[in-house]
Write a structure and sequence with these properties.
four-stranded antiparallel β-sheet, alpha/beta, six-stranded mixed β-sheet, single chain, about 250 residues
Length: about 250
């Protein structure tokens, strides 16, 4: 069976500066792969290259083969949009500060429209929130469909970014996550881990590629390290730290 994603000898340069060099790896069905490496090695560059984002001024060589689409670097604009809408991609930065009166419902519904071409009501969005995010101890939601992200804390924004992708694309073949725990406190970090684990359990054929400096994820199956000369497969099994508590036998906190 062919890999979901196959990176072949990918190099990225900008103004004669190398951002990533000779990167090759595969993501297969059911694999949850951690992409590690020192800061500045180009981890986020690799994820953005897969999605063909922020390409201006950059020079690419090699191939990014995605199942059913071929080489992403060669897709035309229509094909590229279809490819992007088929992937569950969570970028590193959340940017809701300038959104004014935009509601949570608008964010989640827009993601759903891109994936399944349908709009969601406030009630449907609240159902998704209740499915994926535990309520506070007092019984209230962390946020609801009518909440305004522009007023959220950094942690609430991150939670919304992850939810808006995972809740609307639970059947995607590929989930790409760049630093899912940015700005999160103890409780919401565990919520994010559980949220990702839940979608993996519900879609066991999904491939996952993740960047994270926090090693709390019990569901990682492989670790590959990005270096100045490409990618090295970790010789040691992934070790999940217990700084946020011990997960249960299913990998939930």
């Amino acid at each position: 069976m062919e890999p979901i994603l196959s990176i072949k000898n990918l190099s990225v340069e900008i103004k004669h500066r190398t951002l990533a060099k000779d990167v090759s790896f595969d993501i297969n069905e059911g694999e949850v792969v951690l992409l590690s490496g020192a800061n500045g090695m180009g981890k986020s560059t690799i994820l953005k290259s897969i999605m063909r984002l922020e390409t201006e001024g950059k020079k690419f060589s090699g191939e990014i083969i995605y199942s059913g689409f071929g080489d992403v670097l060669k897709l035309n604009e229509d094909e590229l949009q279809k490819f992007r809408s088929s992937v569950a991609y969570i970028q590193q930065k959340d940017d809701y500060a300038e959104m004014g009166n935009i509601q949570v419902r608008d964010i989640i519904s827009e993601s759903d429209e891109a994936f399944e071409d349908k709009s969601l009501t406030h009630a449907e969005v609240n159902e998704l929130i209740d499915k994926w995010i535990p309520r506070r101890e007092n019984g209230n939601r962390i946020f609801d469909a009518k909440s305004k992200p522009a007023k959220f804390s950094g942690g609430e924004q991150r939670l919304l970014s992850v939810l808006s992708v995972i809740a609307t694309r639970p059947n995607a073949k590929l989930l790409i996550i760049d630093e899912p725990l940015n700005n999160l406190d103890f409780v919401n970090a565990r919520n994010i881990s559980n949220l990702i684990n839940k979608v993996i359990k519900e879609n066991p054929k999904m491939g996952v590629l993740m960047i994270s400096h926090c090693r709390i994820f019990p569901f990682i199956t492989r670790e590959i390290k990005l270096t100045s000369d490409g990618v090295q497969e970790s010789k040691e099994p992934y070790l999940c730290h217990s700084c946020f508590g011990e997960p249960d036998g299913e990998g939930f906190y």
